Amino acid sequence: MRGMFASIAPRYDLLNRLLSLGLDQRWRTALVRSLPETAPGQRVLDLCTGTGDVARALQPALPEGTRLHASDFCEEMVVLAPSKFATEGAPAFTVGDAMALPYRDRSFRAVTVAFGLRNIEQPPVGLAEMARVLEPGGRLLVLEFSRPERKLFSAFYRFYFFRILPFMGRLLSGSEIDAYRYLPESVWAFPTPAQLAEEMDRAGLAVREQRRFLMGAVVLHVAERVGM
Questions:
Q1: Domains plus CATH for the chain?
Q2: Would you state the pLDDT for residue 176?
Q3: Reading across the β-sheet that carries 205-213, which strands appear in turn?
Q4: Are 127 and 205 in contact (CB under 8 A)?
Q5: If the chain, 228 residues long, is cut into consecutive pieces of 10 residues, what is the mean pLDDT of each piece?
Q6: What pLDDT was estimated at residue 144?
Q7: CA of 34: how far to CAs of 6, 9, 122, in Å?
Q8: C-alpha to C-alpha distance for 167 and 39, rounded to whole angstroms
Q9: In the prediction, which pLDDT does 17 show?
Q10: Which pLDDT value is given to residue 79?
């Protein structure tokens, strides 16, 4: 998995824009607008940060004095992220495993994950770690692909996802590893929004909203850490 993402890292941002027709930026904006109220001194964590696009969108939305952390398991992705920020005020970037986060319990006001949850080897373990590092009442924001719900659009989307996207991804990325064949296969194997809500509940996260975009092809899951 690391090798696959490392192979497309240099063209990852360009591919995201082209293959999503620029909609990825709109979805990230929706995620940022769903942040909880945050005070100076509190911390926010962007997991599966990749090349730091979500972290870059988060930073101006946070009040001065909020500490932003960003982590990903692929070093080749992470090393590209700091160039998107000014030297001062850049997030604390780390290379790490989402299933074993190196942070204290209840230490973050919010955790964000954009299109990365299904890439975690054991998503329930990752969700449990996210719940662990969130403070009570803290918010988890997960932006993830899903299977469209309307039959006609679902058929069209599936054709694009399984036929057009892998071909274009392979052509544009120049990677010998077929990362863009993995993408649709992983989406179709991923839990439905209802199933993911159940997994979050088992991790101690109460889903407050599941906002659908592109007729359900993308879902923003908004959950809160329950308990004391």
A1: 2-149+191-225 (3.40.50.150)
A2: 57
A3: 92-95, 67-72, 43-47, 108-114, 134-145, 218-225, 205-213
A4: yes
A5: 74 74 89 96 97 94 94 95 82 95 97 95 97 97 93 90 80 65 86 97 97 95 91
A6: 95
A7: 30, 28, 26
A8: 45
A9: 77
A10: 94
Enter the pTM of the model: 0.92
Tell me which residue has tokens 């930026």.
25
Question: How far apart are the C-alpha atoms of 29 and 54, rounded to whole Å?
Answer: 9
> How far out from the chain centre does Cα 12 lie?
14
| Residue given tokens 């403070």 in the structure block | 135
- Report residue 154 as tokens: 């679902």
Amino acid at 75: E
Q: Show the tokens assigned to 211.
A: 């906002």
- Which residue bears the tokens 């469209």? 148
The two three-digit tokens of residue 158, written as one number: 């599936």
**CA 87, CA 74: separation in Å to the nearest integer?**
22
